[in-house]
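Subject: Interface between my chains keeps coming out wrong

I've been trying for a while to get a sensible model of this assembly. When I model each chain on its own everything looks fine, but I need the whole thing in one frame so I can look at the contacts. Pasting all components below, labels as-is. Any help appreciated, I'm running out of ideas.
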Amino acid sequence: MAQLDSKIPPGPLADKWRRHRADIKLVNPSNKRKYEVIVVGAGLAGASAAATMAELGYRVKCFVFHDSPRRAHSIAAQGGINAAKNYQNDGDSVHRLFYDTIKGGDYRSREANTHRLAEVSVNIIDQCVAQGVPFAREYGGLLANRSFGGAQVSRTFYARGQTGQQLLLGAYSALSRMVGAGGVQLFTFSEMLDLVVVDGHAKGIVVRDLRTGEITRHSADAVVLATGGYGNVFNLSTYARGSNATAIWRAYRRGACFANPCFTQIHPTCIPVSGDYQSKLTLMSESLRNDGRIWVPKRKEDRLKAPGEIAEADRDYYLERMYPAFGNLCPRDIASRAAQRVCDEGRGVGETGLGVYLDFAEAIGRLGESAVRERYGNLFDIYHEITNENAYRVPMRIFPAVHYTMGGLWVDYNLMSNLPGLFVLGEANFSDHGANRLGASALMQGLADGYFVIPYTIGNYLATQKPGSRPAPDGAEFRAAEEEVRGRVARLLGAMGGEPVSRFHKRLGAIMWKSCGMARNRAGLEKALQEIPPLREEFWKNVNVPGSGETLNQSLEQAGRVADFLELGELFCRDALAREESCGCHFREEYQYPDGECKRDDEHFAHVAAWEYQGEGKAPLRNVEPLAYEFTKMSVRNYK
Amino acid sequence: MASENTTRNISVTVRVWRQAGPGARGQFVDYPARNLNPNMSLLEMLDVLNDELTVKGEEPIAFAHDCREGICGTCSLVIDGKPHGPHRGVASCQTYMRSFPDGAVITIEPFRASPFPVIKDLITDRSAFDKIQQAGGFITVRTGAAPEANAILVPKDAAELAMDAAQCIGCGACVAACKNASAMLFVAAKVSHMGLLPQGQPERDRRVLAMVKVMDELGFGGCTNQYECSAACPKLISHDFIARMNRDYLKASFRAAFKPVTATAGGGAA
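Reply #2:
Try treating it as a single job with all components included. I did that and got this:
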């Protein structure tokens, strides 16, 4: 059984991080260059970590499967990044951001981690501004803010509807600087296919060059995974097509615990599905909920009418009705379930009946079309490109879609997994958002982990490793891992079955969405757990991966990732079944209040479930890390 | 609302560049694509076609893609002779089948430019752009050393113009569209974004000198003011930024002649 010591420092909440930084071990400057650190992924977390560790003097190797580190999916985040600057003088503070995040996560995240996140949020804005990130400004030249879901203050910084892009390009520029300076060795088109563990410590990775198929081994003193989330287990999601779980899944199979895999955010404002050819779902930023009003017709009979023909009195602005205090800005999980509920009642709009209106008529009347265009122009453009509809004239149609995974590899306060030497940052870890993430907090966490946490905490581990003691990449463990990777590749290419990879991915996605999407119940989850293993078996027998392993082969890349999703999906459902309560995004139909809100069971489930791999065909072990709330009172979330 | 003609399915012929590997001889191959929902994206059409090829035992068409919402800059197709296809201000992934008439022959090629060698079929290697960035496309700021954010005032107009330039997604359509394979729009966007902001002033001269030097070394051509680049740009970045970069470059060159600013001073921390 894995030892799960969260290593939360003692002392008052607000002092923990400061004291921890003062207490943890340091590596002296002339020794730093003797350590090599592997960073996998170059999104916000990976790029900021690689750049910052290289600035400190560590020798960093950064691996990305994309053709350039600037392609990571952080680039697609639209709305903004939170920081407790209180520039609006509206009552914000580090404590309030901490509290909103803990409450938004429905009391399933660690107090200490979340508080640290709120603390360093202010440094992130300073850092990004200094890098030249062109945040929105007021006429006086000061930074502008907007409000976001789950908060009653305006603390979100933004760069039009492309905040993720601008923050990522900032981190990419810092990374590029360090590549130019020789501090980071960059490996593009390089996909990590296994983790190498030597004497219980993570000491390297096995990588496939996606251009040539060459498989290589790399050793290091520590390995940092910043490979993002696993929402593509649902096939259709707002993730990029290439986003995958292979790096974290391979680490799980090597002994790293996987925490809360069933915690998945379903984002309320996405463009609805239009056909079975669909390859992805597109998000419409939550910032739209600042000015857009969400509604459906009061009567089912009106659902196919043109929206303009439905009188004001016949519209149900259901979020404003159900949650008057937060209205359209209630948290994402609540907004998503409410949309599902009105659609289940038969009041959903559009041909499929799976959609609700997001209406800007009132905002255009109040602010004028040009002000709305200035705030959201690019989002209206995206909507137009995809749907061929003009949202300045007719309301947008939106529906919830899989968007983010709060679960991920288990890490302690230092962001180190239960495998010593393996660090996990950003969406790939589980630590800060609990059972639901608030808007504009993913960018915050990615950059907090990379710029301001790992540069300190990695030293605490490396100081225990003798300089120069890292294993050579030709040891037995490395060769064995490479052989396993080669075997998998050969097996995928050798199956020569009749079905392309995409069909298995679609079938898995359909099972996941049906049984483990917005609402879950025992019967559905048990059924999914019976359906996934045979699907996986069929995949290995009947998948068709054309071409060879010695060239660029996208079918092979996709096959490896889907093979891992076919395993992860099962763990996901297992976790959802074992968590017999509703909390945040995890809505078990058996556990709800009469008004349909989540009914938590703090007595039995105020804990992190960290799953431990036990070997092929064996049931994984469910370890538990209890969550103690010393500084906040666990309450029922109330946004009414 | 969507007009009615967008709901009738169409059939097209896709004429695709197939090339087995770097340096291999390539050729166009025609594939029929039938019964397509016009609301399908061009890339989704290729997904469906690739599944059909797979089932038939042929190798699918390799094409670069990722976010499929026009922001990551991965997709890079020349569609009917135009980088990113017939519509202005969108990437290849934002091209929908409703843009093509029933029975159309759609020609799809990779971005063609000698600094972007073909890896396979429609995928090219654009790492040259990363090398230009590494030479000077940054503001040197060590993590943790930044001053309080609101201590740096940025006039709203400057921030807006900087953002216009900063929107560049690094796709390389500007290079593919240019008869000289010039990367001037790409480099000008980065130089202007940082040069317009107060934070970017200390390194303004060395940045432009270093980035232009590496751009030239990598084999990108010069600008002859045809503006094909800005016409093909999925973010509609204006060629005015090229003029801005030229001014910066000229001033920096003069100043470098009198005081020690060198193009090799890039690489920041060195």
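Reply #3:
Confirming on my end. The longest strand of chain A covers residues 396-405.
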